């Protein structure tokens, strides 16, 4: 039985990998689906039928072609909300901890005019699913995608038009198995000792500290475009005096020589600049720059770039309106500049994580978190440890919250995860990430990994290639990865633009001894800057608190201990930010769920807010500090915490 399970899991990942090349699901751009006079969007969020494949080889769904008819006809199904992780929806530990294929389906009517209009493309898009997905429409396979956190889509018009009088059925199978070559990596361990484990027993090992939530995490959408359509837009912005400069490139699909008309409108809908041609430069007089929150009285200013390809007179014209912020980013040996002003990151690390829905996109939570960020006086966050929903980045653009955009390169600890197959996949993921997020003004830096074993010999070549490839994809943003290796033995650090370093003095090292923080932190900064001459961000620091636990003098896990850890770090930040420290990001914004283990009491408790977003004492310490920092470092100096 164990052999069968092993074979089946490996075989599926392998089969899936082979087909992916042939399907090439990611050939085009990845513009966020927006409605316009030429585009309609149908959101398929809601209840889907769901079934986990509990068969010993996790293989029954493929053996019995569960995609060929309704899932409910294959056996018992349950209601499953989309978007949401499936893990915490029921009372079954078996489903919470499930590894293998889960199956979703739902039926819907596609608007008749979409089907009858041959001039329309109908695109099916999945915002993200963890981790390997195969999608069928009416039993026909339309796409596969490897990796969570990023969208994938396919034109399904032809399949839908075969059966215009029937409701259409969408089936999605998702496999959350992690291997040494996936991102994040993991490994399946088979427990073959029959005196210790039941037959076929296996576990998923992971090297990251958040619960391995799975399922369809972001909305599934159907949307239309005309056949001649805007496939991608890329903008690069700068300014000189009061003139904003937007260099744009538009790729139009479905026509060999499309003329393109581009209009930039300001917030009030007034035309700020126009241009023709699929690439060009727009100049905006009296430009309103995009500024971070608390750096300017009017942060997050967005223009709208309206792009219209000119199709033949008889054909409909596409229109896509892209929000554009005009800003620059620059890094020196000691400073991080936004719009030529020194920028100091006073922010947080987050997770996409909440009760019941796990990693599913949840608007009330998103809005609450932005309100808390503003309450806190935070101007930035890192998308630890994977790309967040596009809807969250759009909020960052609008509110001026600065983002370090991290790919799911977390837990790369095994030497076998530094091989060619892993690197090739990592490069693809960076491409998908840059393709998706390149136009967000809030995104100021890419992070290619979190805490890899960057002292292992293959790490030098791996990070050299990964970082140079990322810079080639986007020459306009700095690139980093987040290290907790020894500064002297870190083989990736020579290639980054900004050093991001995590440390947990008085927690994992010298537990209980907060008095060692100042000396150790000072040494840390001096070592890293001395060796690499780069600006440094303290990309994680913190301490677990079980909310409501108190002790004086402070003890680990109490509110007082978190306070005193923070205060000791802050003393050193205040010295070193005058030199080359350009940011501090607390670990973590909120408590979050993790795998079970002896170090975790129902999850990681390093949040300054509980998982339900109630402040611990540390939140007030940070709030006081962040507003003070804003008054000192923002160029607009009359903020008060409200
Ligand atoms: C850091 C990791 C982060 C963990 C944190 C912790 O980057 O994902 O959650 O430690 O242990 O090393 O709390």
TrEMBL record:
<dbReference type="GO" id="GO:0004566">
    <property type="term" value="F:beta-glucuronidase activity"/>
</dbReference>
<feature type="signal peptide">
    <location>
        <begin position="1"/>
        <end position="24"/>
    </location>
</feature>
<keyword id="KW-0325">Glycoprotein</keyword>
<feature type="domain" description="Glycosyl hydrolases family 2 sugar binding">
    <location>
        <begin position="42"/>
        <end position="226"/>
    </location>
</feature>
<dbReference type="InterPro" id="IPR017853">
    <property type="entry name" value="GH"/>
</dbReference>
<dbReference type="GO" id="GO:0005764">
    <property type="term" value="C:lysosome"/>
</dbReference>
<comment type="similarity">
    <text>Belongs to the glycosyl hydrolase 2 family.</text>
</comment>
<dbReference type="GO" id="GO:0019391">
    <property type="term" value="P:glucuronoside catabolic process"/>
</dbReference>
<dbReference type="Pfam" id="PF02836">
    <property type="entry name" value="Glyco_hydro_2_C"/>
</dbReference>
<feature type="domain" description="Glycoside hydrolase family 2 catalytic">
    <location>
        <begin position="329"/>
        <end position="630"/>
    </location>
</feature>
<dbReference type="InterPro" id="IPR006101">
    <property type="entry name" value="Glyco_hydro_2"/>
</dbReference>
<keyword id="KW-0458">Lysosome</keyword>
<dbReference type="InterPro" id="IPR006103">
    <property type="entry name" value="Glyco_hydro_2_cat"/>
</dbReference>
<keyword id="KW-0378">Hydrolase</keyword>
<dbReference type="InterPro" id="IPR008979">
    <property type="entry name" value="Galactose-bd-like_sf"/>
</dbReference>
<keyword id="KW-0732">Signal</keyword>
<dbReference type="InterPro" id="IPR036156">
    <property type="entry name" value="Beta-gal/glucu_dom_sf"/>
</dbReference>
<dbReference type="InterPro" id="IPR013783">
    <property type="entry name" value="Ig-like_fold"/>
</dbReference>
<dbReference type="GO" id="GO:0005975">
    <property type="term" value="P:carbohydrate metabolic process"/>
</dbReference>
<protein>
    <recommendedName>
        <fullName>Beta-glucuronidase</fullName>
        <ecNumber>3.2.1.31</ecNumber>
    </recommendedName>
</protein>
<dbReference type="Pfam" id="PF02837">
    <property type="entry name" value="Glyco_hydro_2_N"/>
</dbReference>
<comment type="function">
    <text>Plays an important role in the degradation of dermatan and keratan sulfates.</text>
</comment>
<comment type="subunit">
    <text>Homotetramer.</text>
</comment>
<dbReference type="GO" id="GO:0005615">
    <property type="term" value="C:extracellular space"/>
</dbReference>
<keyword id="KW-0326">Glycosidase</keyword>
<dbReference type="GO" id="GO:0030246">
    <property type="term" value="F:carbohydrate binding"/>
</dbReference>
<dbReference type="InterPro" id="IPR006104">
    <property type="entry name" value="Glyco_hydro_2_N"/>
</dbReference>
<dbReference type="InterPro" id="IPR023232">
    <property type="entry name" value="Glyco_hydro_2_AS"/>
</dbReference>
<dbReference type="InterPro" id="IPR023230">
    <property type="entry name" value="Glyco_hydro_2_CS"/>
</dbReference>
């Amino acid at each position: 039985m164990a052999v069968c399970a092993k074979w089946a899991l490996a075989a599926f990942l392998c089969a899936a990998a082979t087909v992916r090349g042939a399907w090439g699901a990611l050939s085009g751009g990845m513009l966020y689906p927006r409605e316009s006079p030429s585009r309609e969007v149908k959101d398929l969020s809601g209840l889907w039928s769901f079934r986990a494949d509990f068969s010993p080889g996790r293989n029954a769904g493929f053996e019995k072609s569960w995609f060929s008819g309704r899932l409910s006809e294959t056996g018992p199904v349950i209601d499953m909300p989309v978007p949401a992780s499936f893990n915490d929806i029921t009372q079954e530990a078996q489903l919470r901890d499930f590894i293998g294929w889960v199956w979703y389906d739902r039926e819907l009517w596609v608007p008749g005019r979409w089907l009858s209009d041959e001039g329309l493309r109908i695109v099916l898009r999945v915002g993200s699913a963890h981790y390997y997905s195969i999608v069928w429409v009416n039993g026909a396979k339309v796409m596969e995608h490897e990796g969570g956190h990023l969208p994938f889509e396919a034109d399904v018009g032809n399949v839908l038009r075969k059966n215009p009088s029937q409701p259409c059925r969408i089936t999605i199978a998702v496999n959350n198995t992690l291997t040494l070559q996936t991102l994040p990596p993991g490994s399946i361990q088979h427990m073959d000792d029959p005196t210790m484990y039941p037959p076929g027993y296996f576990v998923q090992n992971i090297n990251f500290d958040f619960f391995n939530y799975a399922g369809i995490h972001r909305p599934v959408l159907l949307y239309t475009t005309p056949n001649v359509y805007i496939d991608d837009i890329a903008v690069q912005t700068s300014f000189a005096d009061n003139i904003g400069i937007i260099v744009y490139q538009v790729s139009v699909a479905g026509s060999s020589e499309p003329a393109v008309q581009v209009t930039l409108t300001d917030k009030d809908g007034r035309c700020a600049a126009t241009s023709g041609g699929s690439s060009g430069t727009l100049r905006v007089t009296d430009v309103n720059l995009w500024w971070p929150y608390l750096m300017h009285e009017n942060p997050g200013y967005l223009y709208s770039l309206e792009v219209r390809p000119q199709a033949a007179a008889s054909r409909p014209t596409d229109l896509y309106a892209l929000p554009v912020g005009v800003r620059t980013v620059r890094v020196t040996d000691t400073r991080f500049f936004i719009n030529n002003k020194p920028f100091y990151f006073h922010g947080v690390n987050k997770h996409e994580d909440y009760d019941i829905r796990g990693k599913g996109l949840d608007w009330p939570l998103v809005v609450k978190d932005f309100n808390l960020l503003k309450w806190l006086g935070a101007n930035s966050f890192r998308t630890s440890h994977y790309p967040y929903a596009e809807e969250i980045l759009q909020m960052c653009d609008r509110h001026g919250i600065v983002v370090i955009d991290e790919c799911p390169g977390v837990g790369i600890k095994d030497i076998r995860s530094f091989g060619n197959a892993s690197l090739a996949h990592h490069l693809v993921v960076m491409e998908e990430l840059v393709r998706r997020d390149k136009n967000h003004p809030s995104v100021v830096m890419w992070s290619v990994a979190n805490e890899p074993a960057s002292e292992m010999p293959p790490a030098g070549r791996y990070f050299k290639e990964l970082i140079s490839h990322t810079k080639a994809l986007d020459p306009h943003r700095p690139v980093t990865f987040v290290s907790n290796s020894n500064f002297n033995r870190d083989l990736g650090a020579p290639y980054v633009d900004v050093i991001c370093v995590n440390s947990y003095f008085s927690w994992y090292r010298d537990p209980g001894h907060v008095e060692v923080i100042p000396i150790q932190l000072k040494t840390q900064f001096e070592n890293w800057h001395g060796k690499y001459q780069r600006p440094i961000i303290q990309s994680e620091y913190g301490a677990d608190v079980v909310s409501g636990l108190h002790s004086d003098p402070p003890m680990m896990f109490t509110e007082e201990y978190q306070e005193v850890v923070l205060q000791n770090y802050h003393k050193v930040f205040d010295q070193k930010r005058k030199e080359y420290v350009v940011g501090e990001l607390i670990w973590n914004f909120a408590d979050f769920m993790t795998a079970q283990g002896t170090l975790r009491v129902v999850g990681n408790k390093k949040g300054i807010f509980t998982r339900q977003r109630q402040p611990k004492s540390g939140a007030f310490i940070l709030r006081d500090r962040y507003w003070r920092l804003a008054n000192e470092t923002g160029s607009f100096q009359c903020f008060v915490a409200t």
